[in-house]
Amino acid sequence: MTEININQHIQTLIERYPKLIVCRETIQQAYDIMKASYAQGRKLLVCGNGGSASDSEHIVGELMKEFKLKREVYKDQADAMKNIDPELGAILAKHLQGALPAITLTGHSSLTTAFMNDSNPELIFAQQVNGYGKPNDVFLGISTSGNSRNVLFAAVAAKAKGLHTIGLTGQRDSRLKGLADICIQVPETETYKIQELHLPVYHCLCMMLEEHFFGK
């Protein structure tokens, strides 16, 4: 699928949400970073608090399974599974879906509660970045204010480990913008209005990535 067709998703986004025209460039740049990372076999780490934690889970759900397109596994993988076990392999080959690796840092309750009890609770996202993160992975920090300290700590840890860093925030400049390679600042200042614009932005990113890697 050509990038011209893929970028039509941004145009459609702006037609539906005209105020997001100010984010056109940063959405494109974020997509380019994520596409290059996935092309190298890397992964996405994503986190946020409250509604942004829910958004983190939502993003992982769209990337790790079919979103809008069919994602059949490659023939070589299907054949390998059938060779290992014809019965189970056939079922796997039929039902498994292609995935873009993504991990939300907002779950893992045993790890989270243990670390929060034993250490500094604000560092729980950073601890997971330290464990999961590899150079050229992508860290996506979602914060309506752009100043959530646990997200900021994670961004610093990510940059130190060689991850690309993307922020998704509201309109106001923030510490996260200063730490991120790219920061998508949606043009709202109230939390719920910011969150209402975050969803179509990350849906657009997920659709473009899916079309690039799984489009015909």
Name some characteristics of this structure:
216 residues, alpha/beta, five-stranded parallel β-sheet, 5 strands, 10% strand
Structure characterization notes:
The protein is of the alpha/beta class and about 220 residues long. The chain has ten helices and five strands, in the order H-H-E-H-H-H-E-H-H-E-H-E-H-E-H. The protein has a five-stranded parallel sheet, sandwiched between helices. Helix 8 (about 150-160) links the parallel strand 3 (about 140) and strand 4. Helix 2 (about 25-40) packs across helix 10. The longest helix is centred in the last third of the chain and has 24 residues, at about 190-215. The mean pLDDT is about 95.
Topology:
Layout: H1 3-16, H2 24-39, E1 44-47, H3 51-64, H4 75-84, H5 86-95, E2 102-104, H6 109-118, H7 124-132, E3 138-142, H8 149-160, E4 164-169, H9 175-179, E5 182-185, H10 191-214
Parallel strand pairs: 1-2, 1-3, 3-4, 4-5
Helix pairs in contact: 1-10, 2-10, 3-10, 4-5, 7-8
The shape, in one word, is globular
Question: Whole-number radius of gyration?
Answer: 18 Å
List low-pLDDT spans: none
- H/E element string? HHEHHHEHHEHEHEH
**Overall average residue pLDDT:** 96
- Record the strand order, biggest sheet: 2-1-3-4-5
Straight-line N-to-C gap: 6 Å
| SSE class | alpha/beta
What is the number of strand segments?
A: 5
User: How would you sum up the major sheet?
Assistant: 5 strands, parallel
Count the helices. How many?
Answer: 10
